[in-house]
Amino acid sequence: MGVSALPAPHRRASRRGLLRPSPPFSKPLLWAGLRDLTAPQSRDPDETVHSFAERRLGPEVAALAADSLCRGVFAGSSQELSVRSCFPSLFQAEQAHRSVLLGLLLGTGQSSQPDSALIRQARAERWSQWSLRGGLEMLPQALTTHLTERGVTVLRGHPACGLSLQAGRWKVSLGDSCLEADHVISALPASVLSKLLPAEAAPLARVLGTIRAVSVAVVNLQYQGAQLPVQGFGHLVPSSEDPGVLGIVYDSVAFPEQDGSPPGLRVTVMLGGSWLQALEARGCAFSQELFQQQAQEAAATQLGLKEPPSHCLVHLHRHCIPQYTLGHWRKLESAAHFLAIHRLPLTLAGASYDGVAVNDCIESGRQAAARALGLELDP
């Protein structure tokens, strides 16, 4: 299972943007840095990303950069998402050093991150993105093979229908059958797990049920004989410019070896945000044609790719990205307290809690397994 990685480009420091205005900003970013260095420290236990960015870096950075970043990572709104939970390094930087810039430069005194030969290679080669040569689906495939070869039974196509506790052991209902377990590690979305828990775990279910998730449509487009007008990993789109398009990834720049034969320019358009939420609220029927049209219009308008694509793939991922809204950390504390007080043999893992990226979910699983086994992890 080989890894494909894209090294971060070596850039000569540029004064443009820092000392002179650079679109889309009307002022040099130096002013945002000076604002951060002089702004007073907040004592609030949490804050929305928008409020945090506006207070420390100014209204333009909040409306353009923070807004776009939240849409690109969480497909959510910076005015709803929690800075403490979504971008903990920024929150901790201010708490530790009264300034985001100083905190990021000096460190926040947090515990060291996990280490391995692959992590050291990534740091040495300055990876900015990584994938697997056969696609990320190779990861669960390899895990399944690894486990089944060691006698572990992997059930697929058996959705869990309910959980009940009997004499301290879990009974997991699978519809036509059931299984018993001493301990359950759940990587289900929090809102899904909340509907499976037994009555005695109703307080936990209520907390988990408030962690909602949003849908995202992913449209892969390939163009023959086309070129990008710019180079880079991709771009994000602020909600003020297009409420439906979250951003566009330049796949051919990141991983040109996957361009096929004959090679064609590949981009991925991410659709979501308030546009998709409004369609869902109205109960509108979604179609591949709708998403393809939106994606092609975005590629034409933003990248000048006006010719029809030679290939198009559309996938709608419903409720796929959890939203860490203001006060998310309190929900996690409440859930952990309930599990500890009642000594439930249940461990929570997955994207609903401490990070939505693939790397975060892998680390979440590692920690969940260690907690279930009563082990201490090496850093």
TrEMBL record:
Keyword presence, Oxidoreductase: yes
Query: Could you state one GO cellular component term attached to this entry?
Result: mitochondrial inner membrane
Q: Which residues form the signal peptide?
A: none
Question: What Gene Ontology molecular-function terms does this entry list?
Answer: oxygen-dependent protoporphyrinogen oxidase activity
Swiss-Prot/TrEMBL cofactor(s): FAD
Q: What EC number(s) does the entry state?
A: 1.3.3.4
Which pathway does it serve?
A: Porphyrin-containing compound metabolism; protoporphyrin-IX biosynthesis; protoporphyrin-IX from protoporphyrinogen-IX: step 1/1
Source organism of this protein record: Pipistrellus kuhlii (Kuhl's pipistrelle)
Matching entries from SUPFAM superfamilies are given as: FAD-linked reductases, C-terminal domain, FAD/NAD(P)-binding domain
Task performed by this protein:
Catalyzes the 6-electron oxidation of protoporphyrinogen-IX to form protoporphyrin-IX.
Q: Which family does it belong to?
A: Belongs to the protoporphyrinogen/coproporphyrinogen oxidase family. Protoporphyrinogen oxidase subfamily.
Listed under GO biological process in this entry are: protoporphyrinogen IX biosynthetic process
Q: Where is this chain's protein located in or outside the cell?
A: Mitochondrion inner membrane
User: How is this protein named in the record?
Assistant: Protoporphyrinogen oxidase
User: Which intervals hold domain Amine oxidase?
Assistant: 34-373
Among InterPro entries, the record links this protein to: Amino_oxidase (IPR002937), FAD/NAD-bd_sf (IPR036188), Protoporphyrinogen_oxidase (IPR004572), Zeta_carotene_desat/Oxidored (IPR050464)
- Tell me where on the tree of life, at the top rank, the source sits: Eukaryota
Basic residues bias located where? 9-18
Primary site of residence? mitochondrion
Q: What class of enzyme is it?
A: oxidoreductase
